[in-house]
Amino acid sequence: MLTLENISFDVPAEKGEIGIIRNISLKIEDNQFLVITGPNGGGKSTLARLIAGIEKPTSGRIYFDGVDITEKNITERANMGISFAFQQPVRFKGVQVLDLIRLAAKKKLAPADACEYLSEVGLCAKDYINREVNSSLSGGELKRIEIATVLARGSRLSVFDEPEAGIDLWSFQNLIQVFEKMRRQTQGSIMIISHQERILNIADRIVVIADGQVTKEGPKDRILPEILGTASAVDACKFYQEDK
Amino acid sequence: MQGIDEIQLRLLEEIAGLHEVPEGAFNIRANGQLATRHNTAHIEIVSKEDGTGIDIHIKPHTKKESVHIPVVLSQSGLTEMVYNDFYIGEDCDVTIVAGCGIHNGGDAASQHDGIHRFFVGKNSRVKYVEKHYGSGDGRGKRIMNPTTEVHMEEGGYMEMEMVQIKGVDSTKRSTAVDLAADAKLVIKERLLTHGTQDAVSEIIANLNGDGSSANILSRSVAKEDSTQTFIAKIYGNAKCAGHTECDSIIMDNAKVSSIPEITANNPDAALIHEAAIGKIAGEQIIKLMTLGLTEQEAEAQIVNGFLK
Question: Judging by beta carbons within 10 Å of its beta carbon (0-12, 13-18, 19+), is residue B170 exposed, middle or buried?
């Protein structure tokens, strides 16, 4: 359903240009659960932003359901069925959680229906529905609301940029269940950028990106054993115990 | 509604949400004249003898009642100055809805200057809502200069919601409140300016009694070539708490000044001011675009939310 063809993305540097993404070709099939992993600074987030249309590639083409979307803007891609959950969700003074979910769902949802999406991500809906999406919300709460907006869209392709970033370990344990449920129920393809073993574990396919290139790619059963114990696959609990 | 024409009716809807005769007491002024009035058992509205305005008397212990006193101007070139005094007895709980709508289809300036004075009795709660709105495509300016003076007795509570979203070319608003012991003031101001509009708002709170508090919140959006100045001054003259926060979104070629000032004349006065001016964050627009909104829709959504 989504095809990246020879995608490169350069940014200007002091001398010439630096390639953030270097000639990546990639495919996501219908209803596939794809996890992208790899070291920090390897270009994963940039790749997600290229798919959502936030950045435009320096070269290469992007096809969505056979349509060339390389020149399409963010709005057009969103309306074609691409959703994007930010790594660092944006705050809005004055915009309520209910407003944001209604905008995402593209219809005037009754508060009770909007609450369902919040419950889905483990938030007690009645405490949140009228809250403003401002700095009174914690990072973990914002992250869940961000994911709820993507759920409310029910898109053909949902891209999540490091859902674990910026939230505490206990919140993340619950969040994993959200993705596990999504894995069982979803209609559409999911692409998650993550380092977490439990997320990698529910993938159909795993792609490892380092230094702007695909270094490994294949079915979970083959790739996961190869990368376990590296920075690409972190066991959250082990991490925590080491910290202690 | 008797004595009210089509344009005035639309203005009334904008400023007071009125579609028909409101419940409770009301006084509707249209083009400088009294159009219609209604008193209740507890609320009496009387014209001042010299004809310059009205006195509103609310009896002590009046609960859950409302007063509407909208003003509409649809005649180009009309200039008026109105004095309205509100006498609110002890232990009341009332809502007062004021507001001014000007439709100017002509070339001469239309101006409404209102001076409102409130005397809030002991332990009374007052919610005051004031909306300003302008319409009409004439070249004549729509000008409103409201002055509000509030005197609060012990234990009084006043919440003021002041909104000016559209169509007023020039406004200079001035609000001064003094508070006795345990009186509480909450002011929420919303302002949007566009075109070449100019708005100045000055709010002064004198916290004179122990246990008094003031919370002044202003949110504004300045678009195109408009200019805004917001001045908030809190004087802590007793053991009191004061907070002022002004937040502005600036767009296009607009200019915004935000001038908070806090003065403590008592060591037990706790005063805080916050002020921020900034553009809409690019990430906010991008987020809403990923939900399928166009850039313009995203911007409108952010502005509407901010001013809600």
Answer: middle
**Nearest CB neighbour to A75, from listed B283, B292, B305:** B292
B287 inside 8 A of chain A by CB: yes
Task: Please tell me whether residue A49 adopts helix, strand or coil conformation.
Answer: helix
Per the structure, the complete domain to which residue A77 belongs is given by 2-87+156-243
Where does residue A240 fall: left (phi above 0), alpha (psi -120 to 50 degrees), or beta otherwise? alpha
Give residue-wise pLDDT tens across range B267-304: 999 999 999 999 999 999 999 999 999 999 999 999 98
> What pairing do the DSSP bridges indicate for beta strands A33-37 and A189-193?
parallel
CATH code where residue A170 lies: 3.40.50.300
The answer to whether position A34 is within a domain reads yes
Which residue reads 């959680």 in tokens? A97
Cα separation of A234 and A224, whole Å? 11
The pLDDT-based confidence of A243 (bands split at 50, 70, 90) is very low
* pLDDT tens per residue across span B32-70: 888 889 999 999 999 998 878 899 999 999 999 999 988
Q: How far apart are CA B29 and CA B8, in angstroms?
A: 10
Asked if residue A135 belongs to a domain, the reply is no
Among B284, B291, B295, the residue with its CB nearest the CB of A78 is B291
Give the CA radius of gyration of chain A.
Answer: 18
DSSP three-state, residue B205: strand
What total number of domains does chain A contain? 1
According to DSSP, residue B210 is labeled T
